[in-house]
């Protein structure tokens, strides 16, 4: 086996976690050519195939490279621990953490309060990942993730803590008159998202009030929120947006008062519990106005 550059392993981890060269390049802050070149060099040094293409055209780790991945993740953890130790020695919380959440949480809860975390820990870099799908923390796609449900995967490698319950109610755009509000259609969800709680609540309200669905469909809360703000109809939205955003007016009806809530969970890596940056971010997230 030839000598190899330990820095090349970060490209292996990036491609394993993202599945595409373009996404791996963005994560590493380089172009696709650099990712390809560094991985080719690493593959030649190790003398084994690292990735194969699956039926969907995505790169997945070759079976023979699984042990190499384990070593790469160990090196990553040790490198992170070293940086944390140096930060602790200088009594600073630093480094980089990636926080993933659905877009509505990123845009309407985390971003408005992010400055307070930066003021307290100016050497800490936070990467925000607005993602609706349930990302795989075991692949290190993020350091922390906020989700509407407790994880079904990850086992002992993932820790889960309930942040609170996010309440929902019915809203329309504040520019609508009472007459327009009554006649406004309901912003409903597409078939792929019909099983979401907010999609079911919307249908229940619409049918109870015998009102029409809008002529378009959405697939996530953030799109429903923006459509409502622009006066395109009524929607079931998180209560946390009301009061902070004057574009909305609550039009809660009797049926909407019966338990429209979703649990919020904070997910983290079990082996990251001692990292100062993780401790600082988790403490900050726990104090945000989730209800």
Task: Walk me through what this model shows.
- The chain has 291 residues and is of the alpha/beta class.
- It folds into two domains: 6-74, Winged helix-like DNA-binding domain superfamily/Winged helix DNA-binding domain (Arc Repressor Mutant, subunit A, Orthogonal Bundle), CATH 1.10.10.10; 111-291, D-Maltodextrin-Binding Protein, domain 2, CATH 3.40.190.290.
- Helices cover 39% and strands 23% of the residues.
- It has helices at residues 9-18, 21-28, 32-46, 66-89, 103-120, 178-183, 197-209, 221-229, 276-286; strands at residues 51-53, 59-61, 95-101, 124-130, 144-147, 158-173, 186-189, 213-218, 235-238, 248-250, 261-269.
- The strands form three sheets. Strands 3, 4, 5, 6, 9, 10 and 11 form a seven-stranded mixed β-sheet that branches. The protein has a two-stranded antiparallel ribbon with strand order 1-2. Strands 7-8 form a two-stranded parallel ribbon.
- Helix 7 (197-209) links the parallel strand 7 and strand 8.
- Helix 1 (9-18) crosses helix 2.
- It starts with 8 loop residues before the first helix and ends in a 5-residue tail after the last helix.
- The mean pLDDT is 84.
Radius of gyration: 23 Å
Total separate domains: 2
**Runs with pLDDT <50, length 5+?**
none
- What structural class should be given to the helix and strand makeup? alpha/beta
N-to-C CA distance: 56 Å
Biggest sheet details: 7 strands, mixed
H/I helix tally? 9
Find the CATH topology of the largest domain: D-Maltodextrin-Binding Protein, domain 2
Net shape: elongated
CATH architecture of the largest domain: 3-Layer(aba) Sandwich
Percent helix, as a range, is: 25-40%
Order of helices and strands: HHHEEHEHEEEHEHEHEEEH
CATH class of the largest domain: Alpha Beta
Overall mean pLDDT stands at 84
């Amino acid at each position: 086996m030839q000598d190899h550059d330990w820095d090349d392993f970060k490209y292996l981890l990036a491609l394993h976690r993202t599945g595409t060269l373009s996404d791996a390049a963005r994560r590493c802050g380089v172009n696709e050519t650099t990712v390809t070149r560094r991985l080719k060099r690493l593959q030649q040094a190790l003398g084994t195939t690292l990735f194969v293409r699956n039926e969907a055209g995505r790169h997945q780790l070759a079976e023979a490279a699984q042990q190499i991945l384990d070593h790469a993740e160990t090196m990553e953890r040790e490198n992170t621990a070293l940086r944390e130790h140096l930060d602790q020695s200088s009594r600073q919380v630093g480094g980089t953490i990636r926080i993933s959440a659905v877009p509505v949480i990123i845009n309407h809860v985390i971003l408005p309060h992010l400055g307070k975390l930066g003021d307290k820990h100016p050497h800490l870099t936070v990467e925000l990942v607005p993602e609706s799908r349930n990302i795989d923390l075991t692949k290190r796609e993020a350091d922390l993730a906020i989700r509407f449900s407790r994880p079904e995967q990850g086992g002992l490698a993932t820790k889960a803590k309930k942040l609170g319950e996010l309440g929902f109610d019915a809203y329309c755009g504040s520019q609508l008159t009472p007459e327009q509000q009554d006649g406004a259609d309901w912003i409903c969800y597409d078939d792929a998202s019909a099983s979401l709680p907010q999609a079911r609540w919307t249908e229940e309200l619409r049918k109870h009030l015998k009102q029409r669905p809008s002529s378009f469909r959405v697939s996530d809360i953030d799109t429903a929120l923006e459509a409502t703000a622009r006066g395109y109809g009524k929607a079931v939205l998180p209560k946390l947006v009301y009061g902070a955003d004057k574009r909305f007016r609550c039009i809660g009806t009797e049926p909407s008062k019966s338990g429209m809530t979703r649990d919020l969970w904070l997910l983290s890596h079990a082996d990251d519990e001692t990292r100062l940056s993780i401790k600082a971010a988790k403490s900050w997230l726990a104090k945000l106005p989730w209800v």
